[in-house]
Automatic annotation (TrEMBL):
InterPro entries for this protein: Alkaline_phosphatase_core_sf, Sulfatase, Sulfatase_N
Gene3D superfamilies linked to this entry: Alkaline Phosphatase, subunit A (3.40.720.10)
GO MF term list: arylsulfatase activity
Similarity section: Belongs to the sulfatase family.
Keywords on record: Hydrolase
Protein name: Sulfatase N-terminal domain-containing protein
Domain Sulfatase N-terminal: residue ranges: 18-127
Record-linked Pfam families: Sulfatase
Amino acid sequence: KNTKRFTDLGFADKQAGFYGMIENIDENMGRLMGKLAEWNLYKDTIVIFMSDNGMTGGGSGRLGQPVAKGYPFFNAGMKGLKGSADEGGVRVPFLMRWDGHWKAGRDLDTVSAHIDVLPTFAAIAGIETLPKNQVEGRSFLPLLTGEKKTLSDSRYLFTHKARWKTGAEPNDFQWKNFAVRNQRYRFVGGGTAISVSERQRKNGVSPKDALFDMLKDPGQKTNIIDQHPEVAEKMRAAYSKFWKEARPLMVNENAPMSPTRPFHVWYAEQMKNGGIPDWKAPKL
């Protein structure tokens, strides 16, 4: 049903499936929230909606090209897609709701990350001490309760594309495709999408580091590294420290990969044995 609506609008099959699935998720979130209201469970339920990475290419369309006539590709003006260390590769929606506890209709501007979710849950549960050297994030509960308007900007968040081949030495990739973020700046290093593409690098184009003021330039259009070299150097030094701490934890670099893609195999078997059955909505 959802896919057909988009093919009727002129979307290609793959893109229609992609946006149809997003629409389907939206509809089912609506069903879930309707039932929470019907069953009077909102006061005892924290609802979270989030994603795991930025906008993807291919199935969703191509950056700079319309997905279908009258439907431009949308990435909220951000630079980069999934697999990039730029803002558009890692920024995700994150919505939370707990009726009777947190004021609704607010946007929280403090930069946070997935590593902050567990400490926040722990704080909600009244847990004051978490295992030492096991949890790197921080609780953003004071923002949700309104106790604070912002949190300290004394930390950095790190991104690395990774994806090197099995058996490769991770240190050879330390200074490629990484980024460092705080509340105001994003430092993008070593040949990420903002500097040169993989194709350009193969053709001999040298990557360069870049620094962006994300408050004034959220689309990462102007590299200000020459104007603020001291900021870039601090962020690069912080990343170097992070890598030295993280490298000893990379213990499975020589683990053999599966010779097949199991989900691809199972999908082929399913299609051969009757295909994907129509989904029937359960009675709730």
